[in-house]
Design goal:
By secondary structure, the protein is an all-alpha fold. It has 12 helices and no strands. The model has no long low-confidence stretch (mean pLDDT about 90).
């Protein structure tokens, strides 16, 4: 799998994110017509992500969001009662969506080596296609309340657990060798995060997402796979 085939196989569009959000039955969304709700949710979330990159979510006002999205203030309140609720919606939906795509990619049985490669590629390609979402989720953790911060930590650990389980499966099969499964999974996650948190670095070096994914897979295999 490469980036182009990933995009063909997995729909990671803002439209799908917003349609799933609407169909989840969120209590804060008071609009009943799906197409109208999805269209406006797309405008709201795109605007919030753009403003978060420009000035930070904490510094963003609802007036800023209104101007960026092109929607009226009354329309905004039809989807969320305030900034804190919007942050919760975005973080919660983002986590559910990412884990759903990861589950889609890993649903078919495969040897541990192939599972590990698929998990790495899926995470990297997801973060490339949804770079603003990933950056937003990471950077805005500091602005969350205690409950939201706890959910963010649980999400981080859940992602690591995917890699830990694959590593332990590979160890039992005799194809992987490592000192500590939790630490190894944490290091893999850190290398995945480097792609979307320091995107400027790889852009300046003209490193394509496939190049990064291929290098990372070779690097990890050399550390894990026994001769």
């Amino acid at each position: 799998m490469n980036f182009e085939s990933f995009k063909t196989k997995h729909d990671t569009s803002m439209e799908r994110v917003c349609r799933e959000l609407f169909r989840s039955g969120s209590d804060s969304i008071r609009i009943k017509k799906e197409e109208t709700a999805v269209k406006n949710l797309m405008a709201i979330l795109e605007a919030a992500l753009n403003l978060s990159v420009k000035k930070g979510f904490d510094a963003m006002s609802l007036r800023d969001l209104q101007a960026e999205s092109g929607l009226s203030m009354g329309c905004l309140y039809s989807y969320f009662p305030g900034k804190e609720a919007l942050l919760h919606i975005m973080q919660d939906q983002g986590r559910k969506f990412v884990m759903g795509i990861m589950a889609e990619a890993l649903e078919e049985p495969a040897p541990p080596e192939e599972k590990l490669e698929m998990a790495i590629r899926t995470h990297i390609y997801l973060s490339e296609n949804m770079q603003k979402w990933f950056y937003f989720s990471y950077m805005e953790t500091k602005n969350m309340g205690r409950d939201e911060a706890k959910k963010a930590i649980e999400s981080e650990l859940l992602t690591e657990s995917i890699f830990r389980d694959i590593l332990e499966e590979g160890e039992k099969a005799g194809v992987f060798s490592f000192e500590d499964a939790n630490l190894t999974a944490a290091m893999i996650k850190a290398m995945l995060q480097d792609w979307y948190l320091k995107r400027w670095k790889y852009k300046n070096r003209q490193i394509h997402v496939d190049e990064y994914a291929n290098f990372l897979i070779r690097f990890i295999r050399k550390a894990l796979v026994q001769p």
